[in-house]
Structure formats: structure tokens, C-alpha cells
Amino acid sequence: MSEWARDLGFWELPLPRNKKDKVWHPIVKVSKTVPFGYVDDPENENLLLPIEHELEALVLAKKHLKQYSYREVANWLTTQTGRNISHAGLKKRIEVERRRKKASAIKYNLAKRLKKTLEEIEKLEKKNTGYYTESSTC
């Protein structure tokens, strides 16, 4: 069959790259509301199990937010996953993730600074045994 004779009406999506690289983990349930991308664990009522295709769609939806409105992306997300999410729910989810990421980055930087400061204190303590030295002039 020649290249010109093939059917151009069919287009195959590329396979996802290294899907095994991403591992979604269960999270602790902190409220009655189950967040988008998770479902209650039937064995443990305090855990939420991840739904991979919903979380993957949510990651893609975050990229779509650069071009489209929350309402359009929420409608797209609902269509793709079959699970309902409102534009307000999507916005809240994105804002909470941003706040947590920012807080995590701040805490990480503070921990690095604290570690550096503690190392400097240890060096000073090894050099000087006390806070002051007595002079021998009496």
C-alpha cells in the first residue's frame, strides 16, 4: 500500500511518556469533602485513594488555565473525567495547591538557613569554649 493510499481520517494519539515515573499516593482525609481526583478508601475511612486518570487530567487542566477561563476548563475536565467539578471548585483547588506549594518552599528555605546557622554556631563553639575570656591584669 502506498503512502498516498492510506486513510487520513484516523489519527492515533501518542502514548504517554514513562507513565510509571508518576506515582500517585493516598492522602489523609481532613474534611468531609472528597477532593477531585480522589475517592474514599473502603478499608480505611481516614484515607483517600488517588484516581490516576482524574489527577492526570487535572495536571493537564492546570496547563489549559493559561489560555482558557476556569469555567471552560472545569467543563472540559468534567467532560474528560466524567466527574463533576465546578469552576469555583477548580479555582479553590488550584489556589489551595499554590498556597501549599508556596508555604512548602518558604519552609524549605528556612530549614536550609537554619541548618547553615547551626553549622556556624557549632564552629564557633568549638573555637571558643566560653562566651568571654578573663584577662590576667589584676
Describe the protein.
Helices cover 48% and strands 7% of the residues. The chain is built from 3 helices and 3 strands. The protein has helices at residues 52-64, 70-81, 87-127, and strands at 27-28, 38-40, 47-50. Strands 1-3-2 form a 3-stranded antiparallel beta sheet. Helix 1 (52-64) packs antiparallel against helix 2 and helix 2 packs across helix 3. The longest helix has 41 residues, at 87-127.
Keywords:
48% helix; mainly alpha; 3 helices; 138 residues
Instruction: Strand order, main sheet: write it out.
Output: 1-3-2
Total count of helical runs of at least 4 residues: 3
The unreliable regions are none
End-to-end gap: 108 Å
Helix/strand order: EEEHHH
How would you characterize the largest beta sheet? 3 strands, antiparallel
Summarize the structure.
With 138 residues, the protein is mostly helical. The protein has three helices and three strands, in the order E-E-E-H-H-H. The longest helix is centred in the C-terminal third of the chain and has 41 residues, at 87-127.
Helix and strand layout, with pairings?
Layout: E1 27-28, E2 38-40, E3 47-50, H1 52-64, H2 70-81, H3 87-127
Antiparallel strand pairs: 1-3, 2-3
